[in-house]
């Protein structure tokens, strides 16, 4: 099956999940996670209708970004080290994985030097797993309040990753938890902070994520096939 065929199937599943939740399909953006994929595969997905690419590593994204010729937006969906912040600000339209004030400050410093405002999501560890990055649900509001004081960083919402091995409905509690954090932050009405995005859901659970309010779903294998 071609990448175009898989992409069409994913888009159909997304639309049906949105319909089940009483939402419009246009409310959910597909982030085609292209880590380890070749430039040819990435461009095939873009020609088939993908618009947003998700990369896990800054260095890999940098190599592709310079040669992918088709119009696209680039999102960083993996963990960001502070020493990669400068390049991340240069490449990415949205950084999904801000998990500390220190990282936000480094992004702010780099973006300020470039005369840019970096759009970011705050990563929340809703599963409590030690292997995952992100602040705890009870810490998110304080972190966002601190980040809101930075001049060159703009919080646009939240991101989470479900528990390891929890797919489909088993991942739903982690998405509900993120939505609840979103609601608490939104109620605080922090100046300059938007809660417009919930980035949650991957190949194994994106339909449940959409039903629970995802605006960004990060799908790789279902589009590009299994990795070699």
From TrEMBL:
Keywords: Pyridoxal phosphate. InterPro entries: Ala_racemase_N (IPR001608), PLP-binding_barrel (IPR029066), PyrdxlP_homeostasis (IPR011078). Pfam families: Ala_racemase_N (PF01168). Gene3D superfamilies: Alanine racemase (3.20.20.10). The modification N6-(pyridoxal phosphate)lysine is found at residue 35. CDD domains: PLPDE_III_YBL036c_like. Its cofactor is pyridoxal 5'-phosphate. It comes from the Bacteria. Signal peptide: none annotated. GO terms for molecular function: pyridoxal phosphate binding. Residues 14-228 form the Alanine racemase N-terminal domain. Pyridoxal 5'-phosphate (PLP)-binding protein, which is involved in PLP homeostasis. Belongs to the pyridoxal phosphate-binding protein YggS/PROSC family. PANTHER family: PROLINE SYNTHETASE CO-TRANSCRIBED BACTERIAL HOMOLOG PROTEIN, PYRIDOXAL PHOSPHATE HOMEOSTASIS PROTEIN. This is Pyridoxal phosphate homeostasis protein. It comes from Handelsmanbacteria sp. (strain RIFCSPLOWO2_12_FULL_64_10).
